[in-house]
Amino acid sequence: MTRIDVHELTKEYGGTRAVDRLSFTVEPGRVTGFLGPNGAGKSTTMRLVLGLDRPTSGTATVGGRAYASLDQPLRRVGALLDPQAAHGSRTARNHLRALAASNRIAATRVEAVLDEAGLSAVAGRRVRTYSLGMRQRLGIAAALLGDPEVLMLDEPSNGLDPEGIIWIRELMRRLAREGRTVLVSSHLMNETASFADHLVVLGRGRLLADTPMREFIDTQVRPRVRIRTTDDAALGALLDGHGHRAVRDADSGRWTVTDARVADIGKLTARAGVPILELAAEEGTLEEAYLALTADATEYTARPARTTTGQEASR
Ligand SMILES: Nc1ncnc2c1ncn2[C@@H]1O[C@H](COP(=O)(O)OP(=O)(O)OP(=O)(O)O)[C@@H](O)[C@H]1O
Fold first, then answer.
1. Ligand 1, closest atom to CA 205?
2. Mutate which of 43, 158, 200, 202 to test ligand 1's pocket (most atoms within 8 Å of Cβ)?
3. What whole-number distance in Å separates Cα of residue 203 and Cα of residue 120?
4. For every residue of 81-136, which 3-state class applies, written as one string?
5. Smallest Cα–Cα separation from 203: which of 26, 38, 56?
6. Which terminal residue of the chain has fewer beta carbons within 10 Å of its beta carbon, N or C?
């Protein structure tokens, strides 16, 4: 089984510390989402793992070895870093054939990955005529070419249409099920939530979290309960009387009780005889959890828009 091991990794560009004493392990058999604000150091870390840059200090290894020392590296590690990497004047098929030949990969793999990426019908076209999504598919096909145990994909959903997004999600899940090591960076939180088992989160080059996804959300987002009644006055008084913080949305008539569990609120309202139309636990989302964690680690933020409270009545 092949792990990616990053140990005390540091990379400085001039005065900028892009990666700062970073240590984590990417395990096989699961998809690890690699998250962090713009400039957090995700791409730099991937480049260091691939030996495309030299670390200032520390190590990054694949299966215990530096990438540069791997024999036939494309058979061990497949990577998508830059979808523009293919030569525009070549056809997609020829681009992959050249890659296969230089890495002693069987030519039959070319047709297999073209098919896998949905590019068979356009494989004879020059890459310069490809859309961003098609280039992205070609980059993923190239990453899969050597049937590698380790895959590192930098924002693979970029430019993909909805069908392509579903494809890449299923592909990553399947690769993990096959026991491969899959590291995927993304800024799309809903997407990441749909495919990642585990998360590594960076902020300003440092490790902010290395945790299973569900645990990450549960520790960052307090539990909430959604509740609707025919007697708002009674419910409001009951929650208030028991020290619960609750907000009622005027449009839907739903209350959201923060920091509460559905079993407790259910018992409370049942005992008090408050009629209930709806009662549900509200799951925290990855986006909420991520924003809570990275609030202080975001270098580049737009001025927040002025928010309006609408018709919410808060208690
Ligand atoms: N070749 C380089 N020369 C100088 N600075 C660089 C270089 N590559 C990256 N950096 C700097 O290192 C920091 C980390 O950049 P990196 O691209 O790794 O972040 P990222 O997390 O991938 O960001 P994004 O989400 O925007 O892709 C940034 O401050 C960036 O400007």
1. 14
2. 43
3. 40
4. CCCCCCCCCCEHHHHHHHHHHHCCCCCHHHHHHHHHCCCHHHCCCEHHHCCHHHHH
5. 38
6. N
The CA distance from 199 to 220, in Å, is 13
- The answer to whether 210 and 200 are in contact (CB under 8 A) is yes
Residues touching ligand 1 (Cβ under 6 Å) are 13, 16, 18, 36, 38-44
What is the ipTM, given to two decimal places? Answer: 0.97
Burial state string for 175-214 with b = 16 or more CB within 10 A and e = fewer than 16: bbeeebbbbbbbebbebbbbbbbbbbbbbbbbbbbbbebe
11, 12, 16: residue to mutate for ligand 1 pocket, most atoms within 8 A of CB = 16
Give the model confidence (pLDDT) of 54-104 as tens digits. 999 999 999 999 999 998 899 999 999 976 777 778 899 999 999 999 899
Tell me the pLDDT tens digit for each residue of 12-66.
999 899 999 999 999 999 999 999 999 999 999 999 999 999 999 999 999 999 9
Distance 39 CA to ligand 1 centre (A): 5
What is the whole-number distance in angstroms between the Cα of residue 148 and the centre of ligand 1?
Answer: 26
